[in-house]
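Hey, quick one: can you model this chain's 3D structure?
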Amino acid sequence: MSKERQSSSAENTAPKKTEVNSEELENIMKKYDRESNTRLWEGTPKLIVYGILALFSLFVIYVTLFATWQDLLRYPSFVGCVLVCGYLIFPIKKGVQKVNHIPVYDWIIMILGAGAFFYVCIFSKELANRLAGGAIRNYEVIIGIIGILAVIELTRRSVGIPILCVGGVFLIYAIYYFMFKRGFAVPKVAEKLTLNLFYFMTGILSTPIQVCAKFIVVFIIFGAFLERTGISSFFISLANCVAGWASGGPAKVAVISSALCGMVSGSSVGNTVTTGSVTIPMMKKTGYKPEFAGAVEAAASTGGQIMPPIMGAAAFLMAEYVNVPYSNIIVRAILPAFLYFLGIFICVHLEAKKLGLTGIPKEELPIFKKLVKKTYLLLPLIILIYLVSSGSRTMAFSAAIAIIFAVAVSNLDRNPAVGIIGCVSLLAYIFLSLPTAVGIILIAITVICCIICMFAKGATLSKEVFFDALANGAKSSISVSAACCAAGIISGCITMTGLASQIISAVIKISGGQMIIALFLTMICCIILGMGVPTTANYCIMASTCAPILIKLGIAPMAAHFFVFYFGIVADITPPVALAAYAGSAIAGSKPMNTAINATKLAIAAFIVPYMFALNPAMLFIDTNALEVIQIIITAVIGLFGVTMGLEGFFKVSVPWPVRILSCLGGLALIYPELLTDIIGILVIVAVIVFQTIRSKKSPGLA
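Sure thing. Here's the predicted structure for all 703 residues.
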């Protein structure tokens, strides 16, 4: 492409305004991210509310590390605290709210709802004895109904309507089942539902909220601390150094930085808005079309949730459902995540070559020597990975240690002596086998060093930022906790009615026992249920309904759960309800649907890779060897390149439509784990590459 054409392209697509201000970003978040629609608190009331949130974070950390409470005390107390914090933060509807105001009816719902769960805590021992016989008093049925309704209302406020629609269907079926199939009277139906959904560990207090209370919230708090140490800016600068200079550099920077930042944030919409505010204007300025720029950011940010080692909240749930160590999940996720981002990277590269785009000028790139000095910001993440993967500490304990380490390293540039003492003390505690008393002294030294750093002038993680991290960690955990409660209700309805076996039978009958059809039907279910539903809740629903179907058909349990996990995530970029893509389009100033379609095309790996590991679990390192893994990597990379080349319609020169279709078919042939299809796929893609190379030499003007 000529320089004149490139210049024209840049002029036509570049925005009049290349920066997005904080007010616009806040409005975008409120429009597409339900948990950003919160009450307005200022002055002393704000300090009180945020103080309650900070105390909730400290309470969760304390209970996780030190308490040995029975289930009927630990989990209801957690949900009760979530309800208090939730109603302090989330108003009854979107829109302009009065400053420092909570309506009387919200106080009533909060007190009654939280009180219902605290009732279970107070009388936990007595209840445990009576629940063993399946008996509760009449007024306890009313208490249970109040608690369930309070959770449902908080879920509507913090998560949205879609998950309630799904839950409503299952709840209505449960009522129908007990009234018409079992012939119970209304009081008996109410008792059955209350027992199973409120008091027993099969409903609200089931696996999702248990994992949330034990692991997820602590990791969300860790993410809040990590972000406030400046690691997001570090990731963006690092991505600029690695890929900013290359052809179409800003888009490649977006892919790398969003993968790294999304791994920490765990929110596709939040990550799209935060990193997209920097990368999308850069992409547009370089010459990418607005809908493509918004799509790149949305696809990469969504993929952050499958990026090891944190992988968002659903990974912890998967470890619990599949009954394997969390470190096992991390290892299995490496190759699929690599292929996902490789697919986006190839699309971005081919688009840049098609448009003839250049990279970021050298003088505008960060200086690598200065950036190296900031690598200490990665230490908390490295420590977390080591502790989790080695199994030397529990997940929750590892996250708590990582939080302390994040505070310790945050001020190494401003208070190096104190920071180094704190870090060395903590490292000695982690890596050396020391007596308990010595370990306590080392932890105390680290905490003292952290406090000194927080109160130092100009501290990166000052006492105000520390308080803010605790409060915002709690705030971010409310919607996840509410979603887990709702998922528990759905799971409880399925369990007590035996609906799971009927769903399994129906899918097997429709698919005729054909694996590929069953996988396709499961994919459609995951995407539909995932529209507007958080990944965590979507995964819980699919793990209870669809994963057992795939396992019944012979797919390895790990592969089945990864399959539903992946397709629950891509719902955020799949039309018609592609919230991450719509958030990206708002920043890019593009048409939302066009952006969503482009994001789906960019994330094509997310639609291919799950089929690959479902049909061949060796991709997840299950029952395999090194040679087989190498073969899978080679065929997967070639297949992805073939599909993306066909979708982009460019390799060296424009690709004719018949050849594009052939390239896609060749790539798809590599999905099925058979030697014959692999050979055919490779031959087809190699033939397309050779054909395009010859065309480019004969007709350079086609570019």
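One thing worth noting: The chain has a mean pLDDT of 85.
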